[in-house]
Amino acid sequence: MQSLIKIDYTGTLDDGSVFDCSDEREPLQFTVGAGQVITGFEEAVRGMEEGQEKEFRIEPSEAYGEYDEALTQQIPRTVIRSDMEIQEGMMLLVKTHDGQEIPAKVAEVGDEQVTLDMNHPLAGKALNFNIKVIEA
């Protein structure tokens, strides 16, 4: 059974740093059972009622997956626009062979090569949530 839910939430990593929070914006609204949020999050809110609060942890396998070294790739610097100053940590959009654009983080900048990391930024990380159901 699918049902619409609105929640306020704070997401933290194991070191306590906040990676996402609904404080400065509208509550998160989604349909439970429709696959609109990560699996572990959907399972944790299933059956919750308005006003209910909950803390839970989602392992990487139920969130953004494990970190995959195969998604790290070295490319020649010449492939990147020459007018762009490339720096470690910056995000680029990379076109795949079929024309899709995917985000990639610059992991390392060398004289000849640039290492791109196409893993989701939260891949390999356990996610901790504190949520409150606003509407169910």
Give a verbal description of the structure.
The chain is elongated, with a radius of gyration of 19 Å. The protein is mainly β and 136 residues long. The strands form 2 sheets. Strands 1, 2, 3, 4 and 9 form a 5-stranded antiparallel β-sheet that branches. The protein has one helix at residues 39-45; strands at 3-12, 18-21, 28-32, 53-58, 72-76, 91-95, 101-109, 113-117, 127-135.
Shape: elongated
By DSSP, the count of extended strands is 9
| Uncertain parts | none
Q: What is the CA-CA span between the terminal residues?
A: 13 Å
What features would you highlight for this structure?
four-stranded antiparallel β-sheet; 1 helix
Ordered list of secondary-structure elements with their pairings:
Layout lengths: L2 E10 L5 E4 L6 E5 L6 H7 L7 E6 L13 E5 L14 E5 L5 E9 L3 E5 L9 E9 L1
Antiparallel strand pairs: 1-2, 1-3, 1-9, 4-9, 5-8, 6-7, 7-8
Concise account of the structure shown:
This protein has one helix spanning 39-45; strands at 3-12, 18-21, 28-32, 53-58, 72-76, 91-95, 101-109, 113-117, 127-135.
